[in-house]
Design goal:
The complex is a heterodimer. By secondary structure, chain A is an all-alpha fold. Chain A is built from 21 helices and no strands. The chains are: A mainly alpha, B mainly alpha.
């Protein structure tokens, strides 16, 4: 069930109203049933995958807690194998087999080709398996008590606002919330609805509008001029942000209305002044998952071999980002995207002192405001360059697009942006006026982010006279209804 | 045995690669350079210097110089 659909528009108020009408002791049942209905709106039979991993992890959690010594680790391994196994079968099997068959072809052994499975990726698989593994790891570390109530544990995995695309929650944040009695709160309702409306605006008005430009250009880049390709790459960075953060806002808002607090997943990522900072602001729940469950365990033993400490740190970083890339999809384009970010970070560490010397020598860092803007633009450029391969259907396509982006920059630099028709060509997905409108939407988005860095937008709007407040809400709804792009528009992160 | 600020300043310098004006009140989120990567490098410096070992849950819980000093002191006592 998509958040930007009529189905959800009916589902959400019905579920929320019934939630508050029911006595507290029955609410977990209601939410669990609602979450099952929500999930089964896609491919109903896939709910069995969820049930399988829920049962395994529920049992694993209890036995990890009860057991001692090596047996605890065995139950943890059982949970990880179950979740990773499900991922391998439904998400990565065809990728591995494709590459294996490719290798056989190179070795002239194509008779040994293994068959591919005809499987549709279960929606939300990467999210709920990671959330479940986080639970058993925390129980193993002694940081979370094993949940004895199967229904509550199942709800932790399946809670519908965050089931399909996160945030990937931690048990310490979520499980206790399902035991707490939540009363209806008008201010929480208003706050949640405002956040959902903002999320819908980002998704329907900004992200889906940008995708009308981005999709044809990335699909057939050879048909478009370099400047158009450059614009598409920039648009894609914002489409990605608005699509995913828009979804997250709807999820957080929907949960908030019922009294649940989900973790923040985005924090103005394009205001980052370094790639390292970017990863503290983008898809925060996934980054922190990889940090706490992969990077820290890999890195903690660095000091045992101090001489190779730096090299091991770089290797661990690279592994984490390769895995992060692979998490996003079973394709080499995602792996290369992850590898690029790993290289960015390693380069940043290695070149820290040299860059500081160069910046000082060139006087770039003399003026803090200028230097900060320089860092923000550089970081955004690096992110956009990496996102090209994330979006491209093939690595070859990505290289072509990168080359054209560079040419597009040169075209812009050489000619004054007056004869727009000449630089855009006849085959541009948008006329100039819509390109300008799209950039205005991006400027509007970043202006909101800038204000959010100084104060809470919600309370700022809340302090205004009623006429202005309601004018803003009305404008937002009109923008969503009449300015949104609708049709077969999926949330990007549903494919992961 | 209690760790001193001057010892930690040296360890921060080793980990972050530049002089950090830390005090007991310094918190991780206020220091952009004290990110996850530098955090683990710092933890390894602390482990080596004081000959202690941190659990991952302890590493996750250290969000300030004060918390770091408290946990080192606990391990040394």
């Amino acid at each position: 069930m998509l958040f930007n659909s009529i189905q959800f528009f009916l589902f959400f108020p019905i579920v929320t109203i019934i939630y508050f009408l029911l006595p507290h002791k029955f609410r977990w049942v209601h939410l669990l049933v609602a979450s099952c209905i929500f999930y089964m709106a896609f491919i109903p039979v896939y709910i069995l995958i969820l049930f399988f991993t829920i049962i395994i992890d529920y049992i694993a959690g209890i036995y990890i807690e009860k057991s001692e010594g090596k047996l605890r680790k065995r139950f943890l391994v059982m949970s990880i194998i179950a979740n990773v196994g499900v991922l391998c079968i439904f998400k990565y099997y065809n990728f591995f087999i494709d590459n294996f068959n490719g290798l056989l072809h190179i070795l002239n052994l194509s008779e040994g080709n293994l068959p591919l499975l005809k499987i549709i990726l279960p929606i939300g698989l990467s999210f709920h398996t990671f959330q479940a593994m986080g639970y058993t790891i925390e129980v193993y570390r002694g940081e979370q008590k094993a949940e004895r109530h199967l229904g509550i544990y199942a709800l932790y995995v399946m809670f519908y606002p965050q089931l399909l695309a996160g945030p990937i929650e931690r048990p310490q944040n979520m499980i206790h919330q399902f035991y707490e009695k939540k009363s209806f709160d008008y201010y929480r309702l208003v706050s949640g609805l405002k956040l959902m409306a903002w999320g819908l605006f980002k998704k329907c008005v900004i992200a889906d509008r940008l995708s009308v430009f981005v999709d044809p250009v990335f699909g057939h880049p050879h048909d478009y001029k370099p400047v158009v390709i450059l614009i598409a790459a920039i648009f894609y960075s914002f489409q990605m942000l608005c699509d995913f953060s828009g979804y997250t806002d709807i999820a957080i808002g929907a949960a908030r209305i019922m009294g649940f607090t989900l973790m923040k997943n985005f924090d103005r990522p394009y205001s980052s002044k370094s790639i390292s900072e970017y990863w503290t602001r983008w898809h925060i729940s996934l980054t922190s998952w990889f940090r706490d469950y992969v990077f820290y365990p890999l890195s903690i033993s660095l000091s045992k071999n101090k001489g190779n400490g730096a090299i091991k740190l770089y290797v661990n970083l690279f592994i984490v980002f390769l895995l992060s890339g692979l998490w996003h999809g079973a394709s080499w384009t995602f792996v290369v995207w992850g590898a690029l970010h790993g290289i960015y970070l390693i380069f940043a560490i290695i070149s820290r002192n040299v860059r500081s010397t160069v910046n000082n020598a060139l006087g770039i860092s003399r003026n803090k405001w200028v230097f900060d803007r320089f860092q923000v633009i550089t970081t955004f450029s690096l992110v956009t360059i990496a996102l090209v391969i994330f979006r491209s259907p093939t690595i070859k396509n990505a290289f072509y697009i990168w080359g054209q982006m560079f040419r597009g920059l040169i075209d812009l630099g050489q000619r004054v942006f007056v004869h727009g028709g000449g630089m855009l060509g006849e085959n541009c997905p948008y006329p100039m006026v819509l390109i300008v409108l799209s950039f205005c939407l991006i400027l509007f988005l970043e202006s909101i982010h800038f204000i959010q860095s100084k104060t809470s937008i919600s309370s700022l709007v809340g302090k205004q006279p009623m006429a202005i407040r309601w004018g803003i809400y009305y404008a937002l709804i009109i923008a969503i209804v009449f300015g949104g792009v609708y049709g077969n528009t999926q949330f990007i992160y549903f494919q992961f | 045995m209690k760790p001193t600020i001057s010892e930690l300043q040296q360890l921060f310098y080793n980990a972050l690669g530049k002089k950090a004006d830390i005090t007991e009140n310094t918190v991780k989120k206020d220091m952009v350079i004290w990110d996850s990567i530098n955090h683990i490098t710092l933890i390894n410096e602390v482990q080596d210097h004081y000959k202690v070992t941190f659990k991952i849950s302890e590493i996750q819980r250290i969000n300030s110089v004060k918390e770091l000093m408290e946990i080192i002191e606990q391990k040394l006592s």
